[in-house]
Amino acid sequence: MPLILDIAVTHIAGRGRQTLVALIGVAVGVGFSVAMAALMQGGQDDFVRQLVDTMPHVDITDEQRTARRQPVEDLFNAVAISGLRPRDDRRGIINPTEAIAWLESWMPGRFAVSLKTQGVIRYSSREVGAAIIGVEPERERGVSPIVDDFVAGNFAALAAGGNNVLIGDTMASRLGAGLGDTITAVSSEGQTRNVKITGLFHTGTTARDEGEAYVLLKNAQILSERPNAINEIRIKLDDPNRAPLVAHRAEAELGYKAVAWQEANEAILQAFVIRNIIMYTVVGAIMLVAGFGIFNIISTITHEKTRDIAIMKSLGFPEADMRRLFLLEGVAIGAGGSALGCALGFALVYALSLVSFKIAAAGREMTHLPIAWSALHYIIASVFAVGSAAVAGFLPARRAARQNPVDIIRGAT
């Protein structure tokens, strides 16, 4: 084997210019593949992180996943039921105290209960439709995405008691109100309550910044005429990946619809899978193009070294050694190009991470490109490169091994 390796190095070094071109081709392919993977993976991770941070990992509401069975179905063998008017059921989650105690006994994370009702926020002659959300400040602090997003006032002001409200800065701008002003909350049941603005938040999500108002739970229950009621339990887990298991267990026990964040964003996560398939297909295509350069070099070496092949085979080198020789040359070029490509890829990723810009779109600001630093990107690109190099070197290697040394020495074609 050392002798075969020495011959392979001699062959590669003998065509220095072509070898260098092939190495550069593989290196550029690997480097740009790593940079592309880091950028795309970084964007995906950043988006998923926003989903995980801004929404509950499990959301339990007072809805049923399937329609309730009608009493008439228990009495008659009906094929279809029509003309029934739904009963006005505004109870929310039944036995909330029992449900809370059960969750506290096993749930690995934090949760908060709330009562959400639709209404209108009025100030002066202006009004804005909003979701009025009643919360318990102590519990809400552990799950709410707005706690650290205040531009005026703070979340703790809600816990001070009284008729206080927290609204988004966009809603405040539309109303023409500011911190300390008193606005009127009107529920869909017609109940009104004057509340004082004690905090303005800015999350960057337009629907939340201009369409949500947070009050104490008891105030929301009074506005909606639903004493002691809640209609939502939001859960933040220590491990977000356990959300489907927790949601399944909660729904089976409580009987209410429990949605994990993966289920709520299933279409987006599927799009990421498709995008990753496309990305690695492009990486494979780049490596395939680089493989043609390696194939050209190994084919040229095989053609030029036909007499050397004849002499080696006449000295007793078996066909396996001939295949191994030229296959080793292709793999060596692929490995060398991969090493250079990894260095180039690291430099490109580092340069991308230094790109600084500022965008203010829909209230959200970004100052750096999202980059994922992962050794897996380098491994995958290198495996593609070495694999394509091995394939590119195999065909010339097989052709060289099959040559008859007698025909070569006689000058036969």
TrEMBL record:
Entry keyword set: Cell membrane, Membrane, Transmembrane, Transmembrane helix
Protein name (record): ABC transporter permease
Family named by the database record: Belongs to the ABC-4 integral membrane protein family. LolC/E subfamily.
Cellular localisation: Cell membrane
Signal peptide interval: none
PANTHER family assigned: LIPOPROTEIN-RELEASING SYSTEM TRANSMEMBRANE PROTEIN LOLE
Domain MacB-like periplasmic core: start-end pairs: 19-251
InterPro entries, per the entry: ABC3_permease_C, Lipoprotein-release_system, MacB_PCD
Residues in ABC3 transporter permease C-terminal domain copies: 282-405
Organism: Mesorhizobium captivum
Ranges annotated as spanning the membrane: 20-40, 277-298, 325-351, 371-395
Keyword Acetylation annotated: no
Organism classification: Bacteria, Pseudomonadati, Pseudomonadota, Alphaproteobacteria, Hyphomicrobiales
UniProt topology in membrane: Multi-pass membrane protein
